[in-house]
Design brief:
By secondary structure, this protein is α+β, with helices and mostly antiparallel strands. The protein has 5 helices and 16 strands. Helix 3 runs antiparallel to helix 5.
């Protein structure tokens, strides 16, 4: 802001161009002989951290493990783990053939993951905090009590049992896999009474959403 000294003393502010938005909140200045109070707010340092990390090339990771007492055939289960940012936008997904997963090169921030498996309820872990050069460890997600979601409505109920029961005796082949693999809950290659009993044991279970239990590991180790 430029100013001129008046001949009779004082400062001529008639050519000043600053506005309230240009001056820090709570500070004052004179413009055109009028006193104005600033409204400019400085951003919180925490909100700038992802930008700083990106500039410095510092990133974090998310790592976790799935459990299922019905089967260890993770290749057939083929879980999908989806990663969302704090705005609920999908930013990555893993179609896994194992029970472990890891998302790399993540900016500092808050994330959410969702685990999807055909024939199973969804599991969501929310409010995952990622820090630079650290691995955010996710608590084990147990799929055992989630088997039997044949009708995708977020709950295992009578309709799912009826649906599965109508498929008893079907052998899973490469030709029919896409249609019937979701009913083979223990992934032994056939839809049978064992699968029906698994579903019965999980009746009335629903999709779950849990808060992340904070746990970190140094990514350099």
């Amino acid at each position: 802001m430029r100013c001129r000294i008046n001949t009779g003393g004082g400062i001529d502010t008639s050519d000043a161009t600053a506005t309230e938005k240009d001056i820090l909140q709570g500070k004052t200045a004179y413009v055109n002989e009028n006193k104005i109070t600033g409204t400019l707010e400085l951003p919180d340092i925490d909100s700038l951290q992802p930008i700083i990390d990106d500039i410095l090339g510092k990133t974090g990771q998310i790592s976790g493990k799935l459990l299922n007492s019905h089967t260890e055939n993770w290749e057939e289960l083929n879980p999908t783990i989806i990663l969302y940012n704090s705005l609920e936008n999908e930013i990555d997904r893993i179609n896994n053939k194992t029970n472990t997963y890891q998302f790399n090169n993540l900016k500092s921030g808050v994330y959410k993951i969702k685990v999807e498996v055909k024939g199973y309820l969804n599991s969501t872990i929310d409010s995952i905090i990622v820090k630079e050069e650290s691995i955010s460890i996710i608590q084990d997600i147990d799929l055992t009590g989630k088997a039997g979601e044949e009708i995708e409505d977020g709950e295992i109920e009578a309709g799912d049992l009826i649906d599965l029961s109508s498929k008893l005796g079907i052998q899973i082949t490469e030709e029919n896999k896409e249609e019937y693999e979701m009913y083979d809950l223990n992934k032994d290659g056939i839809v049978d009474t064992t699968d029906r009993q698994i579903l019965k044991n999980n009746m009335n279970h629903k999709d779950t959403e849990e808060e992340w239990v904070e746990s970190y590991q140094d990514a350099s180790n």
